[in-house]
Design goal:
By secondary structure, the protein is of the alpha+beta class. It has eight helices and five strands, in the order αβαββαβααβααα. A five-stranded mixed beta sheet has the order 2-3-5-1-4. A hairpin with a 5-residue loop joins strand 2 and strand 3.
């Protein structure tokens, strides 16, 4: 019996065993197992009897929840009533607990909690960073290759590699900022005494979220413009058998007219002159006819008085 024939069953069993082993799952980035990245901002307005005492208790409660005071402001109206606000930053897990600790300090006048999931933007930035890294590797491979290139080509590749690295660092920083914003939350606490107006504090503008919305609107407008251009190009290609000959004939006609422009201008001037002369003659003839019809009768046309 041949050696290959004797070991064939064992080789077949080994191949079947390898095929039965679980392989590494090919999952696209961000598919399955992705935890949401929630960014929370909250506003709490409390009507308190004593502003100073309530503010001190609120700061103690915030310190107990490891919150960080970002900024604060206190105002006194003409009646001596105090009102103000303070903005806190704390961990996302501590936000619900602090919101439960503050209402006993006074009467809740307003409460607002806003939550946004930034997972989609986080994953999109990760994919863009990955594409830039691949682009940098390709450019680096071209620079390190043994092929001979001109100095201008080398400078162009170096510039593109530098731009790609800068874009990658910016996108990575934006991704890191999103990750940090998902870990922290912002709480705005407003306190006011009876008879004092609540502090009209404008909500902070999230520039990153604002830019994301504006970028999405710009991309959508660009896609619509490109879609309209593609539709127009498709119609032009479909009806090319009709409009291309007409367009070429029009160009030829315009070229002929341009070459004979002097002759055409001279003949057009003659025609206009003849029409104007004919109109003037007709007007003169009509004027003569009008004068003859309405001319007053002379004395010679009347009979003499002794004829009767």
């Amino acid at each position: 019996m041949n050696t290959h024939t004797r070991h064939a069953p064992w080789l077949l069993c080994f191949a079947l065993l390898l095929a039965a082993l679980p392989g590494k799952a090919q999952t696209p980035p961000g598919a399955g197992g992705s935890t949401p990245m929630l960014s929370r901002t909250a506003t709490l307005a409390l009507k308190v009897d004593g502003y100073d005492e309530a503010r001190s208790l609120a700061l103690e409660a915030a310190q107990a929840r490891h919150a960080e005071l970002l900024d604060a402001k206190t105002l006194v109206n003409e009646k001596g009533k105090k009102h103000g606000w303070m903005r806190l930053r704390l961990s996302a897990t501590q936000m619900p607990r602090l919101l439960a600790d503050l209402p006993p300090l006074g009467k809740v006048s307003a409460e607002n909690v806003a939550t946004s999931d930034q997972l989609s933007e986080f994953e999109a930035l990760g994919r863009r960073v990955e594409r830039l890294q691949q682009h940098e590797q390709r450019l680096g491979g071209i620079l390190e290759s043994a092929r001979r290139m001109r100095g201008s080509d080398i400078l162009y590749l170096q510039e593109r590699l530098f731009r790609a690295s800068v874009d990658e660092s910016l996108l990575s920083q934006q991704r890191l900022d999103l990750e940090r914003s998902a870990q922290d939350s912002t709480l705005l606490v407003e306190l006011f005494e009876p008879g004092a107006l609540p502090a009209g504090v404008p909500q902070p503008v999230d520039l990153h979220l604002w830019y994301g919305r504006a970028s999405a609107i710009a991309h959508a407008a660009r896609d619509r413009t490109l879609a309209r251009g593609a539709t127009a190009a498709a119609y032009a290609a479909a009806y090319a058998a009709f409009w291309v000959p007409v367009f070429l004939a029009g160009l030829v006609l315009l070229a002929l007219i341009w070459r004979q422009r002097r002759v055409i201008f001279a003949r057009a001037l003659q025609i206009v002159t003849g029409v104007v002369t004919l109109i003037m003659r007709i007007i003169g003839w009509l004027r003569v006819r009008w004068e003859h019809r309405h001319e007053p009768m002379s004395m010679a046309s009347f009979p003499p008085g002794g004829a009767d």
